[in-house]
């Protein structure tokens, strides 16, 4: 079985082919639009949508060539149907529908967050239910993944996502975009203790996240230095920011392991996904946390943590096997919560 997956919800134009027989990933082509957005210091939705239009056809072609198959060999076409920047989502969904219609194939609209959630199952035999920490530029959530399309949200952010905290922090420190890798690099030579920053939500009940106060604290620290930072200041502040974000994520995840255990005493696994999972300090601390909680820990390789087509193709394949396909009148969704029954949190906006 072969499924083509298309991802266009943010600033990566991506396509991949996965199979239900090893090797599961037959190709995974990602075109990063970084260069197109860098001059603006962040992602510009209209620029992203136009870039997806330009790059998607050649990216799909390469995905098929690298997989060694043609359109005739496909069993289904999956695309991110949301949530995300709607212009880009429309480009990917329309392309997938066109292929499905022309080739008489099933079309599957994949929730981008479900793509991240199920990506661990591409690399390890992770059984449902499992505990998921999803940390990306647009999302910061703790979910119990009970099955395909079945989620129980334990926590979400009430303001910024973890990746946003890295990105906005890097901007304040003059470290450029994207912020996560820049902060991690600068932090390597920094001394976090020199400029202590708050650890948002640490010790608070529940599993929600909040990063806007930390951003303010960082701005104040920068202003205290007259806005002009030495390389040492930059490194120390980056180290402190990374420590605070990671400490907050760990504190919240610890709370979640208890709730997960209460609900599913036989549950065995903690999974991390999303671009922030690329952070080595976070991975180290999550490894320790899982060991202390008696859970297995699965962190997909970096190429599967940041946005990619393989995770969308895989979620599509899992859905196809479960008989979950979509009609061609599926409407792209800018918002699409994994757990529609979750209690809304104040200020969560599209992050819910
Ligand atoms: O999952 P992703 O590729 O796209 C979204 O769906 O948002 O995540 C991108 C986010 C960005 O905010 C980026 O700064 C962050 O992941 N990121 C990192 C690292 N690499 C990427 N954050 C911390 N440390 C990293 N090494
Ligand atoms: Zn993502």
Approximate helicity band: 40-55%
Class by alpha and beta content? alpha/beta
Strand content: 15-25%
Give the number of helices. 11
- Give the CA-based shape: globular
Number of strands: 10
Order of helices and strands: EEEHHEHEHEEEHHHHEHEHH
The low-confidence runs, each spanning 5 or more residues with pLDDT under 50, are: 348-352
Task: Describe this protein with a few key phrases.
5-stranded mixed sheet, binds zinc ion, disordered C terminus, 352 residues, binds 5'-O-[(R)-(carboxyoxy)(hydroxy)phosphoryl]adenosine, single chain, alpha/beta
Question: What can you see in these coordinates?
Answer:
- The chain has 352 residues and is α/β, with parallel strands linked by helices.
- Helix content is 42%, strand content 18%.
- The protein has 11 helices and 10 strands.
- Strands 3-2-1-4-5 form a 5-stranded mixed beta sheet, with helices on both faces.
- Helix 2 runs parallel beside helix 3.
- The relative contact order is 0.18.
- The structure holds 5'-O-[(R)-(carboxyoxy)(hydroxy)phosphoryl]adenosine and zinc ion.
- The site of zinc ion has 5 residues, from helix 4.
